[in-house]
Amino acid sequence: MTIKTDTKKQMLIKAVVIGVSAGGFKALHRILPLFDNSFPIPVMIVQHRKAENDSFFVNSLKEKCHIHVEEAIDKTRIAQGRIYIAPGGYHLLVEKDLSLALSVDSPVCYCRPSIDVLFESAADAFGPNIIGIILTGANADGANGIKAIKSSGGITIVQNPKTADVDYMPLAAIKTNAVDHILELDEIPRFVNNLVIGSN
């Protein structure tokens, strides 16, 4: 199912941000390996994790993905064709100079890392040249971030809540009326590959 969007909007895509919570381990392990091995732009991800989480999550993605995967480090300059994962217990932000920043500011929607924090900062940094994606999850984190990306002129995508492990987060994003596309999980990487590789 797709919400109608402007099919003439063919801007240069410079980054992808993904937000996910409950059910995210399985969802990310399904879609990220399907991103093209020549994927030319950075991907920043917030998966709700606690500060005491170990490195298993990131290491397991490294083994599955064609693209380099790493946990985000404060003050790192964003590199092309890499996947950055927010560390547990830290907000992940994109700075205006396109470096990454980590913060221990108060939780947002009871979460740190917060999807809203990443999406809102990325919308400020990349403007219309960004894709925001919300996947399965159990709270409303990401809804304000989706609105920020839409307001900046970016493209917004949500996993079909009917087939998400947990539908609350996708539904909250859809209720903002700021979602361009509602897609099945396995459709998302193909759709993003076509948009990104076709625009670069």
From TrEMBL:
Q: What is the uppermost EC class here?
A: hydrolase
| TM region(s), chain numbering | 12-32
Asked if the Swiss-Prot or TrEMBL record annotates the protein with the keyword Transmembrane, the reply is yes
Its GO CC terms are: cytoplasm
Q: Outline the extent of the CheB-type methylesterase domain.
A: 14-188
The entry's active site is: 21, 48, 141
Q: Name one GO molecular function term.
A: protein-glutamate methylesterase activity
| EC id | 3.1.1.61
Keywords linked to the UniProt accession = Chemotaxis, Hydrolase, Membrane, Transmembrane, Transmembrane helix
Q: Which GO terms describe its biological process?
A: chemotaxis
Catalytic activity entry: [protein]-L-glutamate 5-O-methyl ester + H2O = L-glutamyl-[protein] + methanol + H(+)
Q: Which InterPro entries does the annotation name?
A: CheB_C, Sig_transdc_resp-reg_Me-estase
Name of the protein in its database record: protein-glutamate methylesterase
Name of the gene: cheB
